Amino acid sequence: MTPTVLVRMADAGDLYLTWRWIDDSAPAGVGVVPEDQVEAAMSRFTAALPAPGVAGGLENALTAGELATAEAENALAQYLSSVFLPYNLAVSLHEFSVRGIRPHIRIQPSPRTAQLPWELIAPDPEVRLLDIADVSVLAPPGIVHAPARVARTWTDTRDLPVVAVLDPRVPGFRADSALGSVLGRMDSAAAPLAALVADHAAAGRLTPPVAEPVEAFRRTDLDRAWLSRALHAGAARLLYVGHVTAAAPESGRSESATLHLSCTAASPGCAPAYRDHRPLSARDLLLGTHALAADPSSGNLGDDLGYGPGIVGKRAGTGNGVGGVRVPRTGPEIWPIPSRVALIACESGGDLRFAEPVGLVAAMLTGGAELVTAGRWPLPTDLAFRRYSGIPDTVHPFQEAVCAIDSAHETADPVVALNAWQRTHLAAWRATGAIEHSPLIWAAFATVDTR
To answer: pLDDT tens for residues 165-207?
Structure first.
């Protein structure tokens, strides 16, 4: 059995850490990081991240920030380790390493530290935690053990289709606009994602079905009603590549995070419409039509949309009947989430930055997912890498990340598989310092695991 340590963090002015090995294979412990050290460390780290909404914020991250060169990034990683990794925990991890054992670190971050990639931190200039351990994020226990949650297991559903939402067209937004294409033109079958689509289609496991791989991208029919039908038809996994609008942590409303599908403004939902588009919010995914009854601006709730409140007889769930009444449905009833979900979008895992994490990751877990892989921070696209870093057209860091996550989600243990992919890039980053191997991409993803 793999030694596993649960590391939990709490913000209370200072940062408090506790850790416990679930098989008592090493000593447990408690640590405290002074508030000023936490603030300084996280400020320095976030300054190195892409900031698309700030003038020069994306270019700086790819050219001058501390994650843009191997030497500066290693110094940053050592600094983060000195602040956040308790000495006694580091000793236990080292002792396992010298015995050839790779433990599993399961992190429950505090809101202030949610963007911190523990995989990256360096207890020694030549050692990263990723070198000596596998790392994942603990799902909030209140969600995992919620009475109404119906989890779907990979062993029971692994042969079902992959529901793929790949760079959907957002109504009212051009390809080069803020909610435009994240993948660019996919007109070559040689592109990594086109090959991925071809493989799933050849296996008869792709939803929506396509005759040619390019047909899977920039579709206009992938709205919330379609998603509901596709998930009800049965799915092993959900793969989403597109845009997420994360709620600002200071708002205190993680449920306001939204997923951008091909929904028009006429689609019913909790989120406000933008131009001719209404995004799908975490609140929709959690509450379904329960949240819409008192909101006349939220769209038409007609049954013809395929997921509105059903017409029932004497009581909810008894089927259609004369004199029936409309009964709202919960989000998980409308969108039954499959066992494994990949949300590959900027800050798609942003709800972990809230004291009450009820954003998109929480919605996916509540809807039935066993694990969710999501982004900790804004993700540079392949176009951004080419524009600001000059990588050739044949190099696709963003597409490769999508393919790696998709491949990992097909394995028995996605955490181990994804960490192995990250190690290949860490090795290449050390050897070459090439920007396409920067942690800006490969360290951006966290897998939240309930298992």
So the answer is: 999 999 999 999 999 999 998 877 789 999 999 999 999 999 9
CA gap 149, 237 in Å, rounded? 18
Which residues make Cβ contacts (< 8 Å) with residue 277, sequence separation at least 6?
170, 171, 172, 173, 179, 260, 263, 264, 265
pLDDT recorded at residue 296: 45
Within 13 Å, how many C-alpha atoms sit on residue 212's CB side?
A: 8
- Condensed to tens digits (0 to 9), the pLDDT of residues 203-262 reads 999 999 999 999 999 999 999 999 999 999 999 999 999 999 999 999 999 999 999 999
Q: Give the pLDDT score at 293.
A: 58
Pairing of strands 14-21, 29-33: antiparallel
Q: Which residues pair with 349 in a beta bridge?
A: none
Distance CA 330, CA 343 (A): 21
| CA distance linking residue 95 with residue 89, whole number of Å | 10
DSSP letters, 55-96, are TTHHHHHHHTSTTSSHHHHHHHHHHHHHHHS-HHHHHHHHHH
Q: Among positive and negative, which fits the CA dihedral 432, 402, 422, 110?
A: positive
Q: Exposure pattern of 132-158 as b/e (b: 16+ CB <10 Å)? A: bbbbbbbbbeebbeeeeeeebebeebe
Q: Is 406 helix (H, G, I), strand (E, B) or coil?
A: helix
Rounded to whole angstroms, how far apart are CA atoms 249 and 199? 39
328 — pLDDT class (breaks 50, 70, 90): confident
Here the tokens at position 316 are 């909810």
Q: How many CA atoms lie within 13 A of 90 on its CB side?
A: 16
Q: Which of 435, 442, 384, 443 is nearest to 58 (CA)?
A: 384
- Tokens linked to 159: 């042969």
Whole-number Å distance between alpha carbons of 21 and 7: 9
Task: Measure the CA–CA gap between 410 and 67, rounded to whole angstroms.
Answer: 30
Q: What is the rounded average pLDDT for all residues in the chain?
A: 92
Omega before 103 within 30 of 0, i.e. cis? no
- The predicted model gives 40-68 an average pLDDT of 96
Q: Where are the domains of the chain?
A: 4-138+415-449, 154-378
Altogether, the residues listed in the chain come to a count of: 451
**What DSSP element (H or E) covers 6?**
strand 4-12
